[in-house]
Amino acid sequence: MSQEMMLWIVRLLGAGLALLLLHYARRIYLRRQRQLKQLLLQRAGQAPLPSAQAQKTSRLNPGFFGKTALPTADSLPDTPTIDLPLSIMARIGQHFSGDDIAALVKTFGLQRSPSGVYELLNENGRDILFSMLNIHSPGIFAQDLEHMAPIDGVMLVLQLPNCGDAVKDWENFLAISKDMAELCGGRLCDFERRQVTAKDLLTYRHAAEKFQRDYEQWLAAHQR
User: Fold this and answer.
1) Confidence band (pLDDT; 50, 70, 90) for 75?
2) DSSP helix/strand/coil, 111
C-alpha cells in the first residue's frame, strides 16, 4: 500500500470520527435543551411548584376575577391558560452582564419577585403582564446584579389569561420584548433560542387569538 493511499485512509477515518463526535455532541445538546425546557416550563407555571416557591408568576393574576364577580380561580380549576414564551439571547461570542440586566430592570420598571425572577406589571399596577427569567437553570437572578455571573440570555413569559384581551396583551408583550432586545443588543428568539421570524410571530399571534376565543367561551359558560 502506497504512502499516499495510507494518508487518504487516515484522513477518511479522521473525518468519520469527527462526524461521529459532532453527532454525539448534538444529542447531548438537545437533551440538555429538553431538560432546560422542562425546568423553565415548571418555573413558568405549566407544572405545579412547591408552595414555598409559588408566586404570582405561577398562578392567575389576583385581580383577574375581581371585575366579573366570578368564583375564585381555586374553585374553577378548569380555567384555560396558556404561556407564550420568548427569549432574548446575547449575540454569538457575547454575554449579558449584571449591568445589562440592571439596565433592563430600570428602563422597563421590572419588579423583583420573592422567587428571584422579575415581573412587569400592567398599567393597572396590579396584574402581571409578563415575567423575566434567567435563561440558565434554575431560572432565577442573583440578588446583587452587579456581581452576577455573565449569562447567555433571558426568558420572557407571557401568561394568559391576563387582565385584558389576549391579543392586545400579546402585541404589548411583543413590542416591549423587541425594545428590551434592542436595549441590550440581543437577538429576539423563541423558547428554543432560535431567532424568531415573521412566520413564528404570526404563529404566536394565532395562539393568542385562539386562546381569547376559548377563554370567552369558558367565561360565558361560567357566567350563566
Assistant:
1) very low
2) strand
What fold does the segment set 82-223 form as a domain? Cell Division Protein Zipa; Chain: A, (3.30.1400)
Q: Among 49-63, 65-79, 143-157, 189-203, which stretch is predicted with the lowest mean pLDDT?
A: 49-63
**Interatomic CA distance for residues 138 and 142, integer angstroms:** 11
**Which helix or strand (DSSP H or E) is residue 131 part of?**
strand 128-134
CA atoms within 13 A on the CB side of 186: 29
pTM of this structure: 0.67
Kindly write down the DSSP assignment for every residue of 135-184, as one continuous string. Answer: SSTT----S-GGGPPPBSEEEEEEEES-SS-HHHHHHHHHHHHHHHHHHH
Residue with cell 493511499: 5
Separation CA 139–CA 154 (nearest Å): 9
Q: How far is it, in rounded angstroms, from Cα 44 to Cα 61?
A: 13
Q: How confident is the model at residue 20 (pLDDT cuts 50, 70, 90)?
A: low
The C-alpha cell 364577580 sits at 69
**What's the mean pLDDT in 54-76?**
39
- In the chain, % of residues over pLDDT 70: 66
Q: What is the mean pLDDT of residues 76-96?
A: 88
Phi-psi category of residue 116: left, alpha or beta, with phi > 0 → left and psi -120 to 50 → alpha = left
The domains of the chain are located at 1-40, 82-223
